[in-house]
């Protein structure tokens, strides 16, 4: 009899229930991906609507990340006070606000009101993407915890893909993103209104999930915690689990550990490791390598006008990568996945950097249009980068953020790590266009260097968390 067949039926049932809960809370990250791609399709129309220059359009693009930074810093700590479920539920109306009022911003206050809507929506998905990994970690059986937290990355990718389909359909029906469709609304406004779909599902379904058992124990609600643990683990030793959670909280309890207190505590080194992990995830170039994707695809015969074909190709590789990560993270281990995936990342970046280094110079920078070999090498490297990132540093950062911190500090530590993630993301998004305009080759060699450093960092400073109880962390 195999180990898989030996799992009791009630444990299997509990794992299915935990999986359902994980899928529900990942609707927040799905909105994050959906919102980002909606804006990507609407940004030219937004620029035309409000007569924006390139800098103002850049601010519109960065506003969501700024909101995400605010939401992420506040959410983890707030979840220690009012509960993981409550914070997740509070994120829903913020997502709904952007979906509705962002679409009607031309009539309600113009460009600056749109920025406000994006910041509010960003606060929503910042809170949701910060608290979701911790919530999933706290309701997941250790055997499948990694794959359930990894759903966050898959949700972001699916959000991007769904929004690309919506943008394509709306634009084809209207003729362009600036064309008027119905009820006096233009195509780009309908793109925003489609954000209502994930927002409404998120609001309805998060109201149905239970509170985290670790939070309930921290608040002295042991009987409620025991009921939730019985449903999500299927184990017979629930009283012992409750006792272990209570013991792990220490005398001070969770709610006294503010972010400043955490940074002065015995776990400050661990928290800095989490923040560095977040920084390296962004510094490996995930938001930068796509800047030249149109150019790379054009060099192998796929023009910029075939944007959906490009999105579909990239999405296929992303889905393959994240599915591989989900299947392997609990078997291979977090640390080894980061090392293996990180190695593929920096090798891929080195190939792209080499292409831009040796490519002939054109009026707008490196020109690879006349060299199919260089074009195919760069596109292949782009696809390998996607496989490496989405199978390792993309999802496993979320896994580590959700489970690497002790119960006493998890909320505050998640805020600090997720805040670092959004902050570095903002810096990369703002700086990359200037760097790549100066020297594409240097920019990608710089990303390659950070990729190498990320692998060294993972090997030297990270400890394996696979299969361990959350009460054993720290």
TrEMBL record:
List the subcellular locations: Cell membrane
Could you tell me which Gene3D superfamilies the record lists for this protein?
MFS general substrate transporter like domains
* Alphabetically ordered keywords of this record: Membrane, Transmembrane, Transmembrane helix, Transport
Q: How does it sit in the membrane?
A: Multi-pass membrane protein
PROSITE patterns in UniProt: MFS (PS50850), SUGAR_TRANSPORT_1 (PS00216), SUGAR_TRANSPORT_2 (PS00217)
The record, for Pfam families, names: Sugar_tr (PF00083)
Identify a single GO molecular function assigned to this protein.
transmembrane transporter activity
Major facilitator superfamily (MFS) profile domain span: 21-466
Q: What is its main location?
A: membrane
Sections of the chain in a coiled coil: none
GO CC terms in record: plasma membrane
Q: Which residues cross the membrane?
A: 21-43, 55-75, 87-105, 111-133, 154-175, 187-209, 269-292, 312-330, 337-359, 371-393, 414-436, 442-462
Family, as annotated: Belongs to the major facilitator superfamily. Sugar transporter (TC 2.A.1.1) family.
- State the NCBIfam families in the record: SP
Protein name as it appears in the record: Glucose/galactose transporter
